[in-house]
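call fold(seq) -> tokens
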Amino acid sequence: MPKFAANLSWLYQELPFLDRFDAAARSGFKAVEFLFPYQFNPAEISRRLHETALTAVLFNLPPGDFAKGERGIAAIPGREEEFRSSVQLALEYASCLEVRHLHVMAGITQGIELEKANATFLSNLEFALGQAADRDLFIVVEPINNRDFPGYYLTTIEQAGAILAELKDPRLRIQLDWYHAQIMGGDLTRRTERFFADIGHIQVAGVPDRGEPDSGELNFSHLFRFIDKLGYEGWIGCEYKPARKTEEGLAWLKPWL
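ret:
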């Protein structure tokens, strides 16, 4: 049976962030994920996790200046020192929160030579993997569609697969968001199957509007059953924009709890 994690940066936005843990637990979620926890004390987040018996499964490395449109810095030449500092900070939070997946965001590389961006990304991933070598966690990279994030470096599952093939580190995995993958090529059943061995985490949202996964052009019930058949043991992160209050749109989840 698929397991679902509430993305607390997207869901329950009608509540302050630290109150969203209890709301997710009351809705039936057993796990959570979030984008950037760095404005909060990790000990406080850990306390909320223990109080609600929730597992934290994933968060992102610091993205650079998010307010100015930056979406990661791992593929941006000249930002290596900043990236290395961000890895250390993320590892501190991961240790406190017992998180096993860290998402390294590549960044917007429009105007940067492709070869330079690629070399920078590979080098930074190698650094992150090296720093995490003695820890029980995975580094994940996520292809993100270029409609929502114009100029983003990593856009397809195939590109992510090529990066994994080049670095050949079993702790480097793909974070597969079906929303992004549908926009960037579709054919989700076959592509999920093709790259299944490389997938470390899955996320879900309706297409095309990124709402609840019970409307739009995708048959999520089929996809949930399909990865169950493949033997997927990880979590599916619910990273979507609720149409109304989060709890009002969770009817889709009830059959899977």
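The chain has a mean pLDDT of 96.
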